Amino acid sequence: xKIAICLxxxxxxxxxxxxxxxxxxxxxxxxxMTARMILRGEVTLEQIIKEKENxxxxxxxxxxxxxxxxxxxxxEVDAILVLN
Length: 84
Known about the structure:
Blueprint: E1 2-7, H1 15-24, E2 28-30, H2 33-39, H3 45-53, H4 56-64, H5 66-74, E3 79-83
Parallel strand pairs: 1-2, 1-3
């Protein structure tokens, strides 16, 4: 089953474990761009929180059309797991 995870930044530290658990039992996991960036080590959660506080996150989301991009990915999955 292909599962998209929608999450609050509060769950970012746990996303790797959750993704691994789902993958180990045979699921394909789709993550939001910010979560993927954190898992790849491109940014830290602290950097994202600071960008959010400084108003940079909304600008980047608009510029990169993040919501529409993830919406298109969500349309292709079988289930959504919301971590909030």
